[in-house]
Amino acid sequence: MGSICSKRAAEEDVNINKNERQIEVDKSSVQLVAPTIFIKEGILVDVLGRKDAGNVIVSLEEGDKKTKLVDEKKKGRHESVAMDSESIDDQPRMMIRMISMRRPSAAREAWPQWLTAAAGEAVEGWLPRRADSFEKLDKIGQGTYSTVFKARDLETGKIVAMKKVRFVNMDPESVRFMAREIVILRRLDHLNVMKLEGIVTSRMSGSLYLVFEYMEHDLAGLAANPSIKYTEAQIKCYMQQLLRGLEHCHKHGVLHRDIKGSNLLINNDGVLKIADFGLATSYQLDQSLPLTSRVVTLWYRAPELLLGATEYGPAIDMWSAGCILAELFTGKHIMPGRTEVSSFVEQMHKIFKLCGSPSEAYWTKTKFPHATSFKPQQPYIRRIAETFKNFPPSALTLVDKLLSMEPQDRGSATSALRSEFFRIEPLPSDPSSLPKYPPSKELDAKMRDEEARRYVTSNINHNILSENLILHNFH
């Protein structure tokens, strides 16, 4: 969650604020806070605080004491807002930001040319924020293609997360890959999915930051804390929110393709949100274009992806959700390789040992590219029930379903939400009733582990030095 930036780009101001004016409006009028405008020109209006907020290109039409803001797209239907230069006391008002634009294309021209040329549709109708309107406070996340910072919005005082994404030589294909995440985020709107709140860049900048709500925790960071033990009701609460978020994504034709603990963020109100759509893609049931199988962090990757499948759907996210559910009950990863980049062969072997190997019919009908390499000489027995025998029965049933070797047997997010697991006592906790934890993210856990390793190494070196000094003095 954050922003995107090239290696050589510096953070620069977005020079779009020269003509910015703050005005207050109620349903029928607008009070000018800045001097009254008497000239006709194009105006870009960004309505703040409304459910249907968005940028609108309007023009000014003069009147005696009032000036009308007319939506250029709706002029034929005479939709307008009256502007009154006199104060309107005791009336409910909402703030809108009005940025002077000489022509409708000015909004597009506020963005850097490298972005609009490669992926103009991703930012259509939006304006960039200025880099100097945020203050970076701390680094809170690090990925292969992005760095995430905790920051303060200096205009509102709100704490946010800024995701800075790195480009590969600023080539158009790399930009389009990044823009896909923006397009997908703008399509989604759900309590359990991170909402893109803004984009920071400028015409002269090679940097791009994505701005999101700040979340205090991620599931991986909480899981790494040995003092935190989840109750069954708490696990149901987190899983219910995860599945609701996935249900929304899948209904809107989006595959996340990287569900894992560090991408499931939790705030102090107990609300879980799915984050990091960098690997996400749009899909259709009748899609003919092949998809890449090199997605999803290895420990959460469905078997068909390891086998090289290029035609798949929501079932790959459901497999990852099954891994998360089992981890919440066991308190540890259920199929970890030696490292996160452990070999595909090792990962497939772990899946076979836990979930059993597919039937002969499976190998015959699927014809996956890597089937020959991975097909075991002897069949493996499924050991889900044996391995997780201490799980509540309803939880075991759901895990068993989500970790089915056949994608169609995993069901959907909707069917999982209707499972007995969520309908019997104890019922899922209300998010607001969950315990409050100190900020816990995967990066924090890694830093604590590294500090512990340095401490141990330092003590070992100190002891060795002491022993050498004693031996030296003895001789």
TrEMBL record:
Gene Ontology CC terms, in alphabetical order: cyclin-dependent protein kinase holoenzyme complex; nucleus
Gene Ontology BP annotations: positive regulation of transcription elongation by RNA polymerase II
Keyword Kinase carried by entry: yes
Sequence ranges assigned to domain Protein kinase in this UniProt record: 134-422
Database matches in Gene3D superfamilies: Phosphorylase Kinase, domain 1 (3.30.200.20), Transferase(Phosphotransferase) domain 1 (1.10.510.10)
Positions of ATP binding: 163
Record protein name field: Serine/threonine-protein kinase
